[in-house]
Amino acid sequence: MKYKTIEYDNQNNKLILFDQRKLPLEIKYFTAKDYNEVAFAISDMVVRGAPAIGATGAYGFVIASQEFRNLSKNEFLSKMKEASNKLSKARPTAVNLTWAIKRMNKVLNNNKDKPINEIISILQKEANKIYDEDIETNKQMAKHGNKIVPEGANIIHHCNTGALATVDYGTALGVIREAHYSNKNIHVYVDETRPRLQGARLTGFELIEENIPATLIIDSAAPTLMKQGKIDLVLVGADRIASNGDIANKIGTFMLSLAANKYDVPMYVVAPVSTIDFDIESGDQIEIEERSKDEIINVQGTQIAPKEIEAYNPAFDITPAENLTGIITEKGILKAPFKESIKNLL
Predict the structure, then answer these.
(1) Which stretches of 151-223 are assigned E, i.e. beta strand?
(2) Cis peptide before 337, with omega less than 30 degrees from 0?
(3) Domain 6-138 belongs in CATH node 1.20.120.420
(4) Burial bucket for residue 284 (CB in 10 Å: 0-12, 13-18, 19+)
(5) Is-catalytic flag, 246?
(6) Which sign, positive or negative, has the C-alpha torsion 71, 77, 78, 83?
(7) pLDDT tens string 113-134
(8) What proportions of the chain, in percent to the nearest 5, are helix, strand and coil?
(9) pLDDT at position 338, please?
C-alpha cells in the first residue's frame, strides 16, 4: 500500500499515524507528540490491528523516554514505569501491545545503568527492530499461506488484517495479496464487520487500492454464501492466541467458524508468533474488551438507533481451536493438535 500506517519522526520525537477513523472518506494523519497521545491513538482506534498496535506501543515507549530525558535516573525510571503501564492498558485484548511493551521494558532494564541518552538511543533501535521484523514476518506468513489458497478461490475475509493493521503488507490480507500477485485469479467477499465497519471501510479501501476483485457483504450473509457452496476458504487474523489454539479476534469470527465447520469450508487464522500468549491455557482466560454503546447506536456520526436503548458491544469473541483448519505463522502452518504444534514453537 502506498500509505504508511506508522512513521516515527526521530528529529521531532513524534509518531505519525494513518488515521483509520476517517477512511474511506478522508486521507488524514494523526500526529502523537507525547506518550499520552500515543495511548489515546491506540484506545480510540486511530491505529488498530494487533501488529500495528504493538509497533505503535514500542514507539510510544521511545517517545516517553524522550519526554523524560532531562530527569534524574531514578525519576526517569519511575516515569518510564508509569508510561509503560498506561501504554500497556490502552487496549486489553491484543497481546502484541503487551508483548512489545514487555520487550521494550526488558531492553530498558538491561541497560538501566547506562546514561539516559544512551538508553534512549538503544530503545529507539529496538522499536525500529520491532517495526522491521513485522514487515518481514508478514511476508513470510504470506508465502506460507499462499500454499493453501486454491486457484480461482472465493475467500471470505473478516475485519481488516492488511497493511493498515500492521506495519506493512498484512496478515490474512497479506496472504490474499500474495495469492493475487501469484495470478491465482482469486475473489474476496469482504464482511463489513459491524459495528465499526473495518471490513467495509478499511479492507474495502485496501482491496480497491490493490485492484483485487472483491464484493462487500453484510456479516450475516457469510453463512448463506457457504451454504450455497460459493466459498472455498475463510481467512481471518487474531488479536491473541492461547497456547491451546483458541483465538480472540474481531467479533463475528466465532460465527464464521461455526458456519465454516457446518459447510466444510477450510478456515485459517493468519497471525505472527508474537500474537500467541504462551502464558494462558485457553481462550477462557482472555480479557474481552467491551466498548461504548455509542459505536452501535451511531455509524460514522449518524444515529441509527434510539440513544436511550442499552447495547452490548464486545470488540472481540473467542473461537475455539477445534473450529480451525490451521494457524498460519511466519514459522509455518500449525495444525491440530494445536497445543502440541504451538508448544513446539518454543
Answers:
(1) 154-157, 187-191, 214-217
(2) yes
(3) yes
(4) exposed
(5) no
(6) positive
(7) 999 999 999 999 999 999 999 9
(8) 45, 15, 40
(9) 98
pTM: 0.93
Dmax over Cα atoms in the chain, in whole Å? 67
CATH superfamily, with its number, for domain 147-343: Translation initiation factor eif-2b; domain 2 (3.40.50.10470)
Residues 231 and 153: their CA atoms lie apart, in Å, by 8
Q: How far, in Å, are 5, 53, 70, 103, 127 from residue 61 at the CA level?
A: 18, 12, 16, 10, 8
Residue-wise pLDDT for 78-111, tens only, equals: 999 999 999 999 998 888 999 999 999 999 999 9
Q: How far apart, in whole angstroms, are the C-alpha atoms of residue 6 and residue 60?
A: 11
Helices 95-110, 73-88: inter-axial angle, 10-degree rounding:
170
Q: Which of 239, 246, 277, 317 is catalytic?
A: 239
Say how far apart CA 27 and CA 212 lie, in whole Å: 20
